Amino acid sequence: MAVKELSDLSKSKESEDRDSLQALSRNPHRQQIIKHGAMQHTGLLEIQSLHKSYRDRSAFSHIANVLNGIHFTVGENETVGLVGSSGAGKSTIGRIIAGLEHADSGRMLYQGHDVLALKNKERRTVTNSIQMIFQDPYESLSPRMTIEQLIVEPLVIQKLYKNEPEKRRQLVRAALAEVSLTPPERFMNRYPHELSGGERQRVGLARAFICQPRLIVADEPTSMLDSSLRLDLLQLMNQLRERHQISYLFITHDIALTHSFCDRLLVLDKGEIVESGTPQDVIERPQHPYTQRLIGALQQLNKI
Ligand SMILES: Nc1ncnc2c1ncn2[C@@H]1O[C@H](COP(=O)(O)OP(=O)(O)OP(=O)(O)O)[C@@H](O)[C@H]1O
Protein backbone atom coordinates (compact mmCIF):
# COMPACT_ATOMS: atom_id res chain seq x y z
CA MET A 1 0.00 0.00 0.00
CA ALA A 2 1.30 3.48 -0.89
CA VAL A 3 2.56 5.67 1.95
CA LYS A 4 -0.17 8.26 1.30
CA GLU A 5 -2.92 5.62 1.42
CA LEU A 6 -1.51 4.32 4.68
CA SER A 7 -1.42 7.79 6.14
CA ASP A 8 -5.02 8.53 4.93
CA LEU A 9 -6.10 5.23 6.43
CA SER A 10 -4.50 6.04 9.75
CA LYS A 11 -6.03 9.56 9.72
CA SER A 12 -9.52 8.18 9.09
CA LYS A 13 -8.91 5.57 11.82
CA GLU A 14 -7.90 8.37 14.18
CA SER A 15 -11.07 10.31 13.50
CA GLU A 16 -13.16 7.12 13.91
CA ASP A 17 -11.33 6.65 17.16
CA ARG A 18 -12.14 10.11 18.35
CA ASP A 19 -15.86 9.57 17.50
CA SER A 20 -15.89 6.33 19.45
CA LEU A 21 -14.03 7.92 22.33
CA GLN A 22 -16.67 10.62 22.41
CA ALA A 23 -19.32 7.89 22.53
CA LEU A 24 -17.43 6.36 25.45
CA SER A 25 -17.48 9.71 27.24
CA ARG A 26 -21.27 9.87 26.80
CA ASN A 27 -21.73 7.06 29.30
CA PRO A 28 -24.00 8.19 32.18
CA HIS A 29 -21.39 7.71 34.90
CA ARG A 30 -18.91 9.91 33.01
CA GLN A 31 -21.62 12.49 32.39
CA GLN A 32 -22.21 12.72 36.12
CA ILE A 33 -18.52 13.26 36.70
CA ILE A 34 -18.28 15.98 34.09
CA LYS A 35 -21.37 17.67 35.51
CA HIS A 36 -20.05 17.74 39.04
CA GLY A 37 -16.41 18.33 38.21
CA ALA A 38 -14.19 16.25 40.46
CA MET A 39 -16.87 13.90 41.82
CA GLN A 40 -16.36 12.87 45.45
CA HIS A 41 -15.25 9.26 45.75
CA THR A 42 -14.78 7.64 49.11
CA GLY A 43 -11.13 6.75 49.61
CA LEU A 44 -9.76 3.38 48.53
CA LEU A 45 -6.06 4.16 48.18
CA GLU A 46 -4.02 7.02 49.53
CA ILE A 47 -0.37 7.48 48.65
CA GLN A 48 1.60 9.82 50.89
CA SER A 49 5.10 11.14 50.42
CA LEU A 50 6.33 8.17 48.39
CA HIS A 51 10.06 8.11 47.64
CA LYS A 52 12.01 5.67 45.52
CA SER A 53 15.54 5.66 44.19
CA TYR A 54 17.52 3.11 42.19
CA ARG A 55 21.21 2.45 42.45
CA ASP A 56 22.80 2.97 39.10
CA ARG A 57 24.96 -0.07 38.22
CA SER A 58 27.50 2.06 36.37
CA ALA A 59 31.05 2.48 37.66
CA PHE A 60 29.95 5.62 39.58
CA SER A 61 27.27 3.66 41.48
CA HIS A 62 25.22 6.79 41.58
CA ILE A 63 21.76 6.81 43.21
CA ALA A 64 18.98 8.04 40.97
CA ASN A 65 15.92 9.49 42.67
CA VAL A 66 12.91 8.35 40.69
CA LEU A 67 10.00 9.30 42.98
CA ASN A 68 10.43 12.45 45.03
CA GLY A 69 7.50 12.54 47.45
CA ILE A 70 4.36 11.47 45.61
CA HIS A 71 0.90 12.16 47.06
CA PHE A 72 -2.41 11.13 45.51
CA THR A 73 -5.62 9.24 46.16
CA VAL A 74 -7.80 6.81 44.25
CA GLY A 75 -11.45 6.62 45.30
CA GLU A 76 -13.87 3.70 45.23
CA ASN A 77 -15.11 3.16 41.67
CA GLU A 78 -12.85 5.88 40.34
CA THR A 79 -10.55 5.81 37.32
CA VAL A 80 -7.45 7.91 37.80
CA GLY A 81 -5.17 8.50 34.84
CA LEU A 82 -1.42 8.92 35.30
CA VAL A 83 0.48 10.55 32.45
CA GLY A 84 4.05 11.77 32.11
CA SER A 85 7.09 11.50 29.93
CA SER A 86 9.06 8.31 29.47
CA GLY A 87 11.15 7.61 32.57
CA ALA A 88 9.08 9.94 34.78
CA GLY A 89 8.36 7.07 37.20
CA LYS A 90 4.82 6.02 36.22
CA SER A 91 5.46 2.27 36.15
CA THR A 92 7.49 2.48 39.35
CA ILE A 93 4.43 3.93 41.12
CA GLY A 94 2.24 1.17 39.64
CA ARG A 95 4.67 -1.57 40.64
CA ILE A 96 4.95 -0.28 44.22
CA ILE A 97 1.14 -0.20 44.56
CA ALA A 98 0.88 -3.73 43.15
CA GLY A 99 3.57 -4.96 45.57
CA LEU A 100 6.13 -5.76 42.84
CA GLU A 101 8.60 -3.16 44.06
CA HIS A 102 9.57 -1.69 47.46
CA ALA A 103 9.36 2.00 48.24
CA ASP A 104 12.22 3.68 50.13
CA SER A 105 9.81 5.65 52.28
CA GLY A 106 6.27 6.96 52.37
CA ARG A 107 2.85 5.52 53.18
CA MET A 108 0.30 3.59 51.22
CA LEU A 109 -3.11 3.46 52.88
CA TYR A 110 -5.36 0.87 51.25
CA GLN A 111 -8.86 0.25 52.59
CA GLY A 112 -7.66 1.82 55.83
CA HIS A 113 -4.52 -0.37 56.18
CA ASP A 114 -1.05 1.13 56.34
CA VAL A 115 0.23 -1.37 53.77
CA LEU A 116 3.95 -0.58 53.65
CA ALA A 117 4.17 -0.96 57.43
CA LEU A 118 2.73 -4.51 57.33
CA LYS A 119 4.72 -7.74 57.35
CA ASN A 120 4.84 -9.53 53.97
CA LYS A 121 2.16 -12.12 54.73
CA GLU A 122 -0.32 -9.57 56.13
CA ARG A 123 0.48 -7.22 53.28
CA ARG A 124 -0.36 -9.92 50.72
CA THR A 125 -3.68 -10.62 52.44
CA VAL A 126 -4.62 -6.94 52.49
CA THR A 127 -3.54 -6.28 48.91
CA ASN A 128 -4.89 -9.44 47.23
CA SER A 129 -7.56 -7.24 45.76
CA ILE A 130 -5.00 -5.05 43.96
CA GLN A 131 -4.16 -6.50 40.56
CA MET A 132 -2.00 -5.25 37.72
CA ILE A 133 -2.30 -5.58 33.96
CA PHE A 134 0.61 -4.81 31.70
CA GLN A 135 1.49 -3.20 28.43
CA ASP A 136 2.80 -6.29 26.73
CA PRO A 137 0.60 -9.35 27.01
CA TYR A 138 3.33 -11.40 25.25
CA GLU A 139 5.72 -10.70 28.10
CA SER A 140 3.26 -10.94 30.94
CA LEU A 141 1.81 -14.36 29.99
CA SER A 142 4.02 -17.41 30.15
CA PRO A 143 4.08 -19.03 26.68
CA ARG A 144 4.22 -22.52 28.22
CA MET A 145 0.94 -22.28 30.09
CA THR A 146 -2.54 -22.76 28.70
CA ILE A 147 -5.07 -19.97 29.08
CA GLU A 148 -6.81 -21.98 31.80
CA GLN A 149 -3.54 -22.44 33.73
CA LEU A 150 -2.72 -18.74 33.35
CA ILE A 151 -6.08 -17.58 34.63
CA VAL A 152 -6.23 -20.04 37.51
CA GLU A 153 -2.65 -19.25 38.62
CA PRO A 154 -3.58 -16.39 41.02
CA LEU A 155 -5.97 -18.80 42.83
CA VAL A 156 -3.19 -21.40 43.01
CA ILE A 157 -0.77 -18.83 44.44
CA GLN A 158 -3.32 -17.74 47.02
CA LYS A 159 -4.14 -21.42 47.76
CA LEU A 160 -7.83 -20.78 47.12
CA TYR A 161 -10.18 -23.72 46.36
CA LYS A 162 -7.16 -26.00 46.62
CA ASN A 163 -9.08 -29.27 46.58
CA GLU A 164 -11.90 -28.09 44.37
CA PRO A 165 -10.70 -28.35 40.76
CA GLU A 166 -14.22 -28.06 39.38
CA LYS A 167 -14.84 -24.83 41.33
CA ARG A 168 -11.58 -23.43 39.95
CA ARG A 169 -12.59 -24.36 36.38
CA GLN A 170 -15.94 -22.75 36.95
CA LEU A 171 -14.23 -19.52 38.09
CA VAL A 172 -11.93 -19.61 35.04
CA ARG A 173 -14.97 -20.01 32.78
CA ALA A 174 -16.70 -17.10 34.55
CA ALA A 175 -13.61 -14.89 34.26
CA LEU A 176 -13.34 -15.64 30.52
CA ALA A 177 -17.02 -14.86 30.04
CA GLU A 178 -16.56 -11.64 32.00
CA VAL A 179 -14.01 -10.42 29.43
CA SER A 180 -16.14 -11.66 26.50
CA LEU A 181 -13.88 -14.55 25.52
CA THR A 182 -16.76 -16.89 24.82
CA PRO A 183 -17.52 -19.70 24.76
CA PRO A 184 -14.79 -20.12 27.40
CA GLU A 185 -14.06 -23.72 26.30
CA ARG A 186 -12.81 -22.33 22.98
CA PHE A 187 -9.98 -20.56 24.78
CA MET A 188 -9.12 -22.60 27.87
CA ASN A 189 -6.81 -25.13 26.23
CA ARG A 190 -5.04 -22.74 23.92
CA TYR A 191 -1.62 -21.13 24.48
CA PRO A 192 -1.02 -17.36 24.41
CA HIS A 193 0.56 -17.47 20.93
CA GLU A 194 -2.68 -18.96 19.60
CA LEU A 195 -4.59 -15.78 20.54
CA SER A 196 -4.66 -12.32 18.99
CA GLY A 197 -3.11 -9.35 20.81
CA GLY A 198 -6.54 -8.08 21.90
CA GLU A 199 -7.54 -11.54 23.16
CA ARG A 200 -4.28 -11.86 25.10
CA GLN A 201 -4.91 -8.51 26.78
CA ARG A 202 -8.38 -9.80 27.77
CA VAL A 203 -6.75 -12.88 29.27
CA GLY A 204 -4.65 -10.49 31.40
CA LEU A 205 -7.86 -8.83 32.57
CA ALA A 206 -9.50 -12.21 33.26
CA ARG A 207 -6.46 -13.17 35.39
CA ALA A 208 -6.95 -9.95 37.35
CA PHE A 209 -10.69 -10.50 37.66
CA ILE A 210 -10.52 -14.00 39.04
CA CYS A 211 -9.13 -12.37 42.23
CA GLN A 212 -12.22 -10.13 42.58
CA PRO A 213 -10.13 -6.96 42.54
CA ARG A 214 -11.09 -3.60 44.01
CA LEU A 215 -8.23 -1.79 42.29
CA ILE A 216 -6.54 -2.55 38.98
CA VAL A 217 -3.28 -0.88 38.07
CA ALA A 218 -3.33 -0.83 34.27
CA ASP A 219 0.15 -0.01 32.96
CA GLU A 220 -0.32 1.13 29.36
CA PRO A 221 -2.64 -1.79 28.60
CA THR A 222 -3.68 -0.39 25.24
CA SER A 223 -0.38 0.83 23.83
CA MET A 224 0.36 -2.35 21.84
CA LEU A 225 -3.13 -2.60 20.39
CA ASP A 226 -4.37 -1.01 17.20
CA SER A 227 -6.89 1.79 17.51
CA SER A 228 -10.11 -0.24 17.30
CA LEU A 229 -8.86 -2.90 19.72
CA ARG A 230 -7.75 -0.10 22.03
CA LEU A 231 -11.30 1.19 22.17
CA ASP A 232 -12.76 -2.29 22.63
CA LEU A 233 -10.51 -2.83 25.64
CA LEU A 234 -11.35 0.54 27.19
CA GLN A 235 -15.05 -0.10 26.69
CA LEU A 236 -14.70 -3.50 28.31
CA MET A 237 -12.77 -2.00 31.23
CA ASN A 238 -15.52 0.61 31.65
CA GLN A 239 -18.24 -2.07 31.64
CA LEU A 240 -16.34 -4.12 34.22
CA ARG A 241 -15.95 -1.05 36.37
CA GLU A 242 -19.67 -0.36 36.29
CA ARG A 243 -20.57 -3.99 36.88
CA HIS A 244 -18.14 -4.56 39.77
CA GLN A 245 -17.55 -1.07 41.21
CA ILE A 246 -13.80 -1.31 40.79
CA SER A 247 -11.20 1.44 40.50
CA TYR A 248 -8.37 1.82 38.00
CA LEU A 249 -5.04 3.56 38.09
CA PHE A 250 -4.60 3.94 34.35
CA ILE A 251 -1.00 4.63 33.31
CA THR A 252 -0.65 5.96 29.80
CA HIS A 253 1.33 8.11 27.40
CA ASP A 254 -1.85 8.94 25.55
CA ILE A 255 -3.45 11.89 27.31
CA ALA A 256 -6.26 11.95 24.71
CA LEU A 257 -7.48 8.57 26.00
CA THR A 258 -7.82 9.92 29.53
CA HIS A 259 -10.35 12.52 28.40
CA SER A 260 -12.99 9.89 27.81
CA PHE A 261 -11.85 7.16 30.17
CA CYS A 262 -10.70 8.81 33.40
CA ASP A 263 -12.46 10.77 36.14
CA ARG A 264 -9.26 12.42 37.27
CA LEU A 265 -5.86 12.91 35.75
CA LEU A 266 -2.44 13.19 37.42
CA VAL A 267 0.56 14.56 35.58
CA LEU A 268 3.94 13.23 36.66
CA ASP A 269 7.17 15.03 35.86
CA LYS A 270 10.60 14.03 37.20
CA GLY A 271 9.14 11.95 40.00
CA GLU A 272 6.61 14.54 41.21
CA ILE A 273 2.91 15.01 40.58
CA VAL A 274 2.90 18.50 39.11
CA GLU A 275 -0.77 18.79 38.23
CA SER A 276 -4.09 17.07 38.82
CA GLY A 277 -7.73 17.67 37.96
CA THR A 278 -10.44 16.42 35.67
CA PRO A 279 -8.97 15.45 32.28
CA GLN A 280 -11.01 18.21 30.72
CA ASP A 281 -9.52 20.87 33.05
CA VAL A 282 -5.98 19.62 32.66
CA ILE A 283 -6.20 19.35 28.88
CA GLU A 284 -8.05 22.62 28.32
CA ARG A 285 -6.37 24.72 31.03
CA PRO A 286 -2.95 23.20 31.82
CA GLN A 287 -1.27 25.14 34.66
CA HIS A 288 2.20 23.64 35.04
CA PRO A 289 4.85 24.43 32.39
CA TYR A 290 5.48 20.70 31.79
CA THR A 291 1.77 20.03 31.18
CA GLN A 292 1.56 23.09 28.94
CA ARG A 293 4.48 21.76 26.85
CA LEU A 294 2.92 18.28 26.70
CA ILE A 295 -0.48 19.58 25.59
CA GLY A 296 1.10 22.07 23.17
CA ALA A 297 3.12 19.31 21.49
CA LEU A 298 0.05 17.10 21.14
CA GLN A 299 -1.98 19.96 19.70
CA GLN A 300 0.73 20.56 17.11
CA LEU A 301 0.56 16.91 16.13
CA ASN A 302 -3.24 17.21 16.01
CA LYS A 303 -3.55 14.41 18.56
CA ILE A 304 -5.98 16.20 20.88
N1 LIG B 1 14.96 -1.86 38.41
C1 LIG B 1 15.48 -0.67 38.07
N2 LIG B 1 16.78 -0.40 38.29
C2 LIG B 1 17.32 0.80 37.99
N3 LIG B 1 16.63 1.82 37.43
C3 LIG B 1 15.32 1.60 37.18
C4 LIG B 1 14.69 0.35 37.47
N4 LIG B 1 13.37 0.44 37.10
C5 LIG B 1 13.21 1.68 36.59
N5 LIG B 1 14.37 2.37 36.63
C6 LIG B 1 14.57 3.76 36.20
O1 LIG B 1 13.62 4.55 36.87
C7 LIG B 1 13.12 5.57 36.01
C8 LIG B 1 11.60 5.49 35.97
O2 LIG B 1 11.21 4.28 35.32
P1 LIG B 1 9.69 3.93 35.06
O3 LIG B 1 9.67 2.63 34.32
O4 LIG B 1 8.93 4.04 36.32
O5 LIG B 1 9.28 5.14 34.10
P2 LIG B 1 7.96 5.35 33.23
O6 LIG B 1 7.47 6.72 33.53
O7 LIG B 1 7.00 4.23 33.47
O8 LIG B 1 8.55 5.27 31.76
P3 LIG B 1 7.90 4.69 30.41
O9 LIG B 1 6.73 5.58 30.12
O10 LIG B 1 8.98 4.82 29.40
O11 LIG B 1 7.50 3.25 30.67
C9 LIG B 1 13.79 5.36 34.67
O12 LIG B 1 14.87 6.25 34.57
C10 LIG B 1 14.28 3.93 34.73
O13 LIG B 1 15.46 3.77 33.97
Sequence-ordered SSE layout with sheet pairings:
Elements: H1 3-25, H2 28-35, E1 43-55, E2 63-75, E3 79-84, H3 90-97, E4 105-110, E5 113-114, H4 120-127, E6 130-133, H5 137-140, H6 147-157, H7 165-178, H8 185-188, H9 197-209, E7 215-219, H10 227-244, E8 247-251, H11 255-261, E9 264-269, E10 272-277, H12 279-284, H13 289-300
Parallel strand pairs: 3-8, 3-9, 6-7, 7-8
Antiparallel strand pairs: 1-2, 1-4, 4-5, 9-10
Helix pairs in contact: 1-10, 1-11, 6-7, 6-9, 7-9
The structure holds adenosine-5'-triphosphate (ATP).
The site of adenosine-5'-triphosphate has 10 residues, from helix 3.
Structure description:
GO terms for molecular function: ATP binding. It holds the Pfam family ABC_tran. A hairpin with a 7-residue loop joins β1 and β2. This protein is an alpha/beta fold and 304 residues long. It has two domains: 215 residues, P-loop containing nucleotide triphosphate hydrolases (Rossmann fold, 3-Layer(aba) Sandwich), CATH 3.40.50.300; 76 residues, no CATH class. The radius of gyration is 20 Å and the shape is globular. The N terminus is likely disordered. The chain starts with a helix and ends with a helix. The longest helix is centred in the first third of the chain and has 23 residues. The chain is built from 13 helices and ten strands. α6 crosses α7 and α6 packs parallel to α9. The strands form two sheets. It has a six-stranded mixed sheet, with helices on both faces. Strands 2-1-4-5 form a four-stranded antiparallel sheet, with helices on one face. The structure holds adenosine-5'-triphosphate. The site of adenosine-5'-triphosphate has 10 residues, from α3.
